[in-house]
Design brief:
heterodimer; A: 139 residues; mainly alpha; two-stranded antiparallel sheet; B: 765 residues; two-stranded antiparallel ribbon; 32 helices
Chain lengths: 139, 765
């Protein structure tokens, strides 16, 4: 596919979509959204760019191979279990702590970290799927 | 006690990290640890029973429970005491071999595992230590792993004891389900309930299978002679105080709980008698020093199992005493066999003789042990034999048979002992490759101490009886038992039996010596009669097992994706339909409510496009139609205000369409390859699956739980998890484990796709 309009649009839309994805991730705890949705959106943003240009090229541009996102995500998920272990509670019990006052008392906790882990895993999985399917056929 | 085990673990690991100048003395350091453990137990004799518990997973009835009572004391003393002597002996013995670090590591860990086993007061914990000893003995037996026979023997022992271990676990779980606990104390308190439960016999048989394999009982006795491939210190330890005694220990441990029933007093003595006879019979015809000793071990194990099976006061007393006797003489004899092999380079009886000239001290030690094995006065073995005869005479069941077979096997033992001494140490001096000489003191301490103990304890057995045997018998028999060990019992039935045994044994020995032909003929007859060897049968079974497993795998794992899917769908469908019919779930009481026309219209459109996607011959149409159906469903979600669901649905649907588009160009031309019949079959399966899912969906609305789970989430989402979006809170907090599972599955799927598509094509050679 070689459409100039699509390519131009993709250049900016990709960033817009990524911003939306992160927004969906952050607001997920109180409003529709979350790590899974955000991850899918971010994955699609990158895939979209790949379709406008060339999947192989995007893959090259993406210096981090998609597997790494999966690894990072799973790692964050595991890390989010540590606080509950340290506090000797049942594994995966949410541990929350309030941020200092100037942030407006925003609360942060391990489920959020868990959600970020899901976010990265889903991005990685999406990209792995699509890139595997669109790669150059074996000669 | 847990600290003691940790000390063992650290000591075994320390072998690798010791600095160079200490490393030379690693065996000595380990010996000191064993001696310390021995003293630790010894000084606690007046305090027993000691009980200690550490919480582990209380929800699963799992705790680390330790008990040091009379029975564990007997075994703990043997394990640590003989362990110390074995390490002392191993130090010079292993000097000339490579890889001693690993050897001492395994051996130390092994004795730690054995201690853990005998101290366990929780059956699951006991099982873990039980398996540990099996695995570690595998490494010990295969120490000379460059020899094929050693590898084979090690594998064989691992298979057999591993099989028995699994059976033991099953037995523990079965009986544990009766009382709802794996704690020994709870089992003790509910012994009556266990014995009367209908699960008693299956549980007993399963546990017995574990005992029989571990303690090398008939018909699984053959792994023990095979295990003589191990270095001499290992054989000495395995045969005397550890490994094979684990089964005996378990029987004694469970005897107050499971014992005393007709099943117990019939099955177990029978196994014991058969083993006893097998052992002593083959000991006579064996020609390899270590093989002779291995078969006498089998005999001794048979005696122990028999005695525990008889389950009377006398028999248990005899068993506990015999445990010591056997440990003493067997450890000594294996050490001496190792010495002889080292000095002369052979273990064959025919090539040995006259060694007394070079090794007088060794001969003295060996003679004491052999006389103890034969059960001659004034050694400890004589006391044991008297007690055993007494137990057999007074055995409530099958006394005559047991007595006759017992006397026969003891006659064999007398003959074997004398024959061993005569052939190895006396007689004509054979020529050897190198001239043997007396072993250094380092080698002789271990066997010497044990042989000396056999003699001293035989002459004055009071302390042994009062402080060690009595508590053990009390534990097993549950009560205050009078234990009086005496060398001289007076002229009674038992004494005449002993006399007869000795006379007949000596006669047999002279016969074996004078009529050499007789023994050869006997061996020949043996090899014909027993042409079917148990180890060959076992190997055959194993081989056939692999064949069957391969065939099964080929049937089930055929490698056709479509049939995997077919199997999964059909199985699920049938299961669900059966459940639907059994519970009459197709009857609905819910009144149908009409929805707004645009939702109804949407539903109709979804159905139409779904049909279109199935019948269309163009791939583009199919993909677009599926996309429409997906977005339609998302709209329905949206209408019923499931926003998160709708967003996810839209995104996934987009992704699906994108992926389909990506591979569209690569697919071959569309063609109908399947026959009409398969297509109809697939249609039927699809309809059936769809139908049952529809019913399930209806049913889900209709089911009235006591209290809908959704309200719990709604109430607690903000107060306990600080989130207003309930769906998200469920995903990342309440049911985080599920989410993690899903994410893991996703990852696995991605890895699978990646490997399948992205890797270079694997060309078959």
């Amino acid at each position: 596919m070689n459409s100039v309009i699509l390519q131009m649009a993709a250049k900016y839309l990709k960033w817009l979509l990524l911003v939306f994805a992160v927004l969906a991730l952050f607001r997920g705890h109180n409003q529709p959204g979350g790590g899974f949705i955000g991850g899918l959106m971010a994955g699609l943003a990158i895939v979209y760019r790949g379709f406008a240009f060339n999947a192989f090229q995007v893959k090259e541009e993406l210096k981090d191979r998609p597997e790494r996102y999966v690894g990072l995500g799973l790692f964050l998920i595991l890390v989010s279990f540590i606080p509950s272990m340290v506090r000797n509670e049942t594994l995966m019990t949410g541990v929350w702590t309030a941020l200092p006052g100037w942030t407006g008392g925003f609360k942060i906790g391990t489920p959020f970290l868990f959600d970020i882990g899901v976010f990265f895993t889903v991005i990685g999985v999406t990209l792995l799927f699509v890139f595997s399917l669109t790669q150059k056929p074996n000669p | 006690m847990i600290y003691l085990l940790i000390v063992y673990l650290i000591a075994s690991l320390s072998v690798f990290i010791l600095p160079q100048w200490l490393k030379k003395h690693k065996a000595f350091i380990l010996t000191i640890v064993q001696v310390m453990a021995f003293v630790y137990f010894l000084v606690r004799i007046p305090e027993i029973p000691i009980y200690a518990v550490w919480k582990w997973v209380p929800d699963l009835w799992l705790n680390l429970e330790f008990i040091l009572d009379g029975l564990s004391m007997v075994f703990a003393l043997l394990v640590s005491g003989i362990g110390a002597l074995v390490f002392l002996y191993a130090r010079p013995y292993m000097k000339s071999y490579e890889g001693t670090d690993k050897f001492f590591f395994y051996l130390m860990l092994f004795s730690g595992a054995m201690l853990g086993l005998v101290l366990s007061a929780n059956l699951i914990q006991l099982f873990i230590f039980w398996e540990l000893t099996s695995y570690l003995s595998f490494f010990l037996i295969s120490f000379f792993h460059e020899k094929e026979s050693a590898r084979k023997a090690a594998l064989q022992s691992l298979y057999i004891t591993g099989m028995g271990g699994l059976s033991l676990l099953a037995g523990i779980v079965v009986l544990g389900s009766v009382v709802g606990s794996y704690s020994l104390g709870v089992w003790m308190d509910n012994a009556e309930a266990i014995r009367e439960s209908h699960l008693y016999l299956p549980g007993l048989l399963l546990i017995l299978a574990g005992v029989v394999t571990k303690s090398a009982q008939f018909p699984f006795h053959f792994w023990l002679p095979g295990a003589m491939q191990a270095p001499a210190p290992v054989s000495s330890y395995l045969h005397s105080a550890t490994m094979v005694k684990a089964g005996v220990f378990l029987l004694a441990r469970l005897s107050p709980i499971l014992g005393g029933t007709p099943e117990w007093t019939h099955i177990i003595p029978l196994i014991g008698v058969l083993t006893m006879l097998t052992g002593s019979y083959f000991a006579i015809t064996a020609t390899d020093l270590k093989a002779i000793l291995a078969y006498t071990t089998i005999n001794a194990l048979g005696v122990l199992v028999l005695l525990l099976g008889i389950n009377t006061r006398e028999s248990i007393m005899a068993a506990m005493l015999f445990l010591f006797i056997h440990a003493f003489y067997k450890a000594t004899l294996f050490m001496i066999a190792g010495l002889i092999e080292k000095k002369t380079g052979t273990r064959e009886l025919a090539e040995l003789g006259g060694l007394v000239k070079y090794m007088p001290v060794t001969f003295l030690i060996a003679l004491l042990s052999l006389l103890s094995m034969a059960g001659l006065p004034p050694l400890l073995g004589f006391l044991g034999k008297e007690l055993i005869y007494e137990a057999k005479v007074h055995s409530p069941n099958i006394a005559n048979l047991v007595l006759v077979l017992g006397v026969t096997s003891n006659i064999f033992m007398v003959a074997v002992s004398l024959y061993f001494a005569r052939k190895v140490f006396l007689g004509k001096l054979k020529t050897f490759k190198k001239v043997p000489d007396e072993m250094g003191r380092a080698f002789l301490i271990g066997p010497g101490v044990l042989a000396f103990l056999s003699l001293v304890l035989g002459l004055s057995p009071d302390n042994l009886g009062d402080f060690i045997i009595k508590p053990a018998v009390d534990t097993v028999f549950m009560g205050d038992v009078e234990v009086k060990l005496k060398l001289w019992h007076g002229f009674n039935q038992v004494f005449y039996l002993s006399l007869f045994t000795i006379v007949a044994g000596v006669a047999l020995f002279i016969g074996m010596l004078k009529r050499k032909k007789l023994l050869d003929v006997w061996r020949k007859i043996n090899s014909i009669v027993f042409s079917v060897h148990f180890e060959q049968v076992f190997a055959w079974v194993l081989e056939k097992f692999v064949v069957v497993a391969t065939a099964k795998t080929n049937v089930v794992q055929h490698g056709y994706h479509r049939y995997y899917l077919l199997t999964i769908f059909m199985f699920t469908t049938i299961l669900l339909w059966v459940q639907v019919f059994v519970t009459r779930s197709f009857i609905f009481t819910m009144p149908l409510k009409f929805q707004p026309f645009y939702i109804t219209g949407l539903a109709v459109v979804i159905v139409l496009v779904a049909i279109a996607s199935a019948v269309s011959r163009s791939r583009i149409v199919t993909i677009v139609a599926m996309g429409v159906a997906g977005y339609g469903i998302a709209l329905i979600f949206l209408y019923y205000s499931a926003i998160d669901l709708a967003i996810t649905q839209i995104l996934v649907e987009t992704l699906t369409v994108v992926m389909f588009m990506a591979i569209l160009q690569r697919l071959p031309k569309f063609a109908v390859l399947s026959s009409k019949r398969t297509r109809i079959r697939d249609l039927l399966i699809a309809l059936s699956f769809g139908g049952v899912m529809t019913i399930l969906a209806f049913k889900a609305v209709n089911v009235n739980l006591n209290r809908p789970i959704s309200s719990f989430y709604l109430e607690n989402s903000y107060t306990r998890a600080f989130g207003e979006n309930v769906v998200n809170v469920i995903l990342v907090d309440f049911r985080a484990l599920d989410t993690m599972g899903e994410v893991t599955v996703l990852t696995l799927a991605a890895v699978g796709v990646y490997l399948l598509l992205a890797s270079k094509k694997i060309t078959k050679p």
